[in-house]
Specification:
The chain has one helix and 55 strands. The chain is an all-beta fold and 688 residues long. A five-stranded mixed sheet has the order 1-51-50-49-48, with no helix packed on it. A five-stranded mixed sheet has the order 2-55-54-53-52, with no helix packed on it. Strands 3-4-7-8 form a four-stranded antiparallel sheet, with no helix packed on it.
Length: 688
């Protein structure tokens, strides 16, 4: 690669990581940045050490929140896993991405090293075989003929003189050597190295195309190397641009492309030197993927993003790609972006990027045992998949860094995880029943968090706009309302039909399977309106609801203990944050103003205790948190402050016990917020 192309590459990566679009209109943050982070430190400043620190109430004493961290056990895949490739059900390679960060002195560095890892036991344990401090890996794969592994990434430093892409190859997956590739610049619209997928026909002859799961666009041709990856040049698809799909069996190859009029399939019989459009393949299929199931049987997939209507299609050839017929057609779904065939079983990932979308953009994983005529969709999403045989498949959700595995063709899927790699997300409480949403599934507790077990597969539904509801929830539209069916643990399910429709600005909390509070409606200050939110209460599991009060708030969150209701919202008049508290079942609320300088993210109630999670320094990133705690229904408060302690979700269990998730950790307090101890739940059966 010419040095002149490296600076715009890293600038594009850095801007994308900040949510800024490149000149081509594509926002492209590095996937690894979504699922790795630094643990909070044990020492934190008090609020009193910050000048101008604001408190919501005058009588809040300032203390120090002490965090006690316990190291998790070792084992399992690492945090930050981005891609994986297996050649047998036991042997495989994984890569991790280092977080790209900007330096105050200029340039870019990585917060964690990128790694290449090897496993020989199906992914349960891993050995680091390559580690580079300033590397960020993004792809790993096996050559079409075997005998060659390829891993790709970028390396960065604080200067612009040695920022080079990194292509690493090996014959056995354990001993690696680095190759510094040289790739052409324009006519590619922007530097594209971080968004390529690779196919090697032999150790010397390899190809690279854009991965639609990582980038929305096309290349003027296919990048090819004939010297093992050292130099790359474009090979033309006559009259077309490459759209990403490429596959080989010996010297026979297939590739997807598009012209100004149509998308189609191109074919080569000389190892990729010359390509020709397959007669009759040009149409409106939107081809993005192609694979060989045997030297004669091939599959091609594509479709259209739901943003533009949405469909998925798969075509089959029984004569090496000379003729094709459609075997699968699905409407209102995303396009097929990758295909993998193993011993008669066909796997597909569905989902591709559109302009401005942050990658990775795949999401659904499907499997077919009848040649693509029918598919089963896996509940566990993923973007990068490998299938070494008919029964075994592994895939990575690289937004979450979770490795999913099946050894029976998809009938049963399990997460192979370790505490270090789990991303902790939303936690909710219903009495002593907890539900903890993680990147590898949902954990449930019936003893206030002393132990957790895995949620029943298939029982987990959506909880959008309904914070506080059990995570084992199925939500379906029901006429003018919403039906919420709660299956908590082993108990019989109960169904709540909510009394209002259009719940995009509603908050729901359940104190027990029978008692719940819904706050819905209201107009935020940015809308310029003055309408109130309505408070509804149910005492029979949602069979009937009673409207008990109006609140002049745009509701953000609600907590309900059965005794105390706390509603956090934004006022119409000043855009400030207000806290409404009721101690009589919602029939009367006392409204307290939370100063605008203090931004609060959530509230929870337990007995007569009310908790608030706030940002006392108004940094807007919730990395400075104050846990406000009231044991008398909000009439008096105590506060504990932690520096650089970011929260994802908060749940109260009792007057003294509460949980907070930080994305990479779960923390518990048993003394009203004075101290928090990091909790690593014992992994349930079926998790590794």
């Amino acid at each position: 690669m010419r040095r002149a192309t490296l600076v715009p590459l890293l600038v594009a990566l850095l801007l994308a990581g900040c949510g800024v679009q490149t000149a081509a209109g594509h926002a492209k943050p590095r996937p690894a940045a979504e699922h790795t982070a630094t643990k909070p430190t044990a020492q934190h400043q008090t609020a009193g050490s910050q000048s101008g620190a604001a408190h919501p109430f005058a009588n809040v004493p300032v203390g120090t929140m002490h965090l006690v961290s316990t190291q998790p056990p070792a084992g399992g895949p690492p945090a930050g896993i981005v891609d994986v490739s297996f050649d047998t059900s036991s042997n495989g390679v994984a890569v991790t991405g280092g977080i790209l960060i900007g330096l105050s002195s200029g340039g870019v560095a990585t917060q964690h090293p990128g790694r290449i890892l090897w496993t020989s036991d199906g992914g349960h344990s891993w050995t680091t075989v390559w580690q580079e401090r300033n590397a960020s890996f993004y792809w790993v794969g096996r050559s079409a003929t075997g005998g060659l592994w390829v891993a790709a990434g970028v390396t960065v430093s604080s200067t612009s003189s040695n920022e080079t892409p990194l292509l690493v190859t090996s014959a056995d997956g354990i001993h690696w050597s680095a190759v510094e590739p040289v790739i052409p610049g324009p006519p590619a619209p922007v530097p594209v190295w971080p968004w390529l997928r690779f196919t090697f026909v032999s150790p010397q002859n390899g190809f690279a195309t854009l991965d639609p799961r990582e980038y929305a666009g096309s290349l003027p041709g296919i990048l090819r190397t004939v010297d093992g990856g050292r130099t790359w040049n474009y090979v033309s698809l006559p009259g077309a641009q490459s759209t990403g799909g490429i596959a080989f069996t010996a010297s026979l190859g297939l590739a997807t492309g598009e012209t100004a009029q149509c998308s189609g399939i191109w074919r080569t019989t000389d190892g990729g030197a010359d390509w020709a459009l397959v007669p009759g393949s040009c149409g409106s299929k939107g081809y993005d993927a192609v694979t060989f199931a045997s030297p004669s049987v091939a599959y091609a997939g594509g479709g259209q993003n739901p943003k533009f209507g949405g469909f998925a299609t798969i075509w089959r050839s029984a004569d090496g790609g000379s003729t094709w017929h459609q075997v699968y057609d699905a409407q209102k779904v995303g396009p097929v972006s990758a295909l993998t065939a193993a011993q008669g079983v066909l796997w597909a990932t569905v989902g591709a990027c559109v302009m401005g979308q942050s990658p990775p953009c795949g999401g659904s994983v499907m499997v077919s045992a009848d040649g693509g005529k029918t598919f089963s969709q896996m509940a566990e999403g993923g973007t990068h998949l490998t299938a070494p045989d008919a029964s075994t498949a592994m895939w990575v959700d690289s937004m979450q860094g979770v490795l999913w595995s099946t050894v029976d063709g998809g009938a049963q899927v399990r997460a192979i995880v370790s505490p270090q790699s789990i991303s902790f997300e939303e936690i909710t409480a219903m009495g002593r029943d907890l539900s903890l949403s993680t990147s590898a599934g949902v954990l449930l507790s019936t003893d206030g968090g002393d132990s957790f077990y895995a949620a029943t597969p298939g029982a987990v539904g959506q909880t959008l706009f309904m914070p506080g509801l059990s995570a084992e929830t199925a939500v379906t539209a029901d006429g003018m309302g919403i039906t919420v069916t709660v299956q908590h643990g082993s108990r019989a399910p109960h169904t709540m039909t909510l009394p209002v429709s259009g719940l995009t600005n509603a908050s729901l909390a359940m104190a027990s399977p029978q008692r719940g509070v819904l706050v819905a409606g209201g107009t935020g200050c940015s809308k310029g309106g003055t309408s109130d939110a309505r408070v509804y209460v149910t005492t029979n599991g949602g069979t009937t609801w009673q409207g008990v009060a109006n609140l002049p708030l745009w509701p953000m969150s609600v907590g309900d203990s059965g005794q105390t209701i706390a509603v956090l919202g934004s006022s119409d008049a000043s855009c400030g944050t207000e806290l409404a508290i009721s101690v009589n079942g919602g029939h009367h609320f006392r409204v307290e103003n939370v100063p605008k300088a203090l931004s609060c993210a959530g509230t929870a109630a337990s007995g007569t205790t009310v908790w608030l999670v706030c940002d006392p320094f108004a940094t807007l990133d919730y990395t400075n948190l104050e846990i406000l705690h009231s044991s008398d229904g909000g009439r008096s408060w105590s506060g504990f402050v932690a520096k650089r302690f970011g929260a994802a979700s908060f749940a109260a269990v009792s007057a003294d016990q509460a949980y907070i998730t930080t994305g990479t950790g779960l923390w518990e307090t048993q003394d009203g917020g004075a101290t928090f101890t990091e909790v690593w739940p014992a992994l349930p059966v079926g998790w590794r």
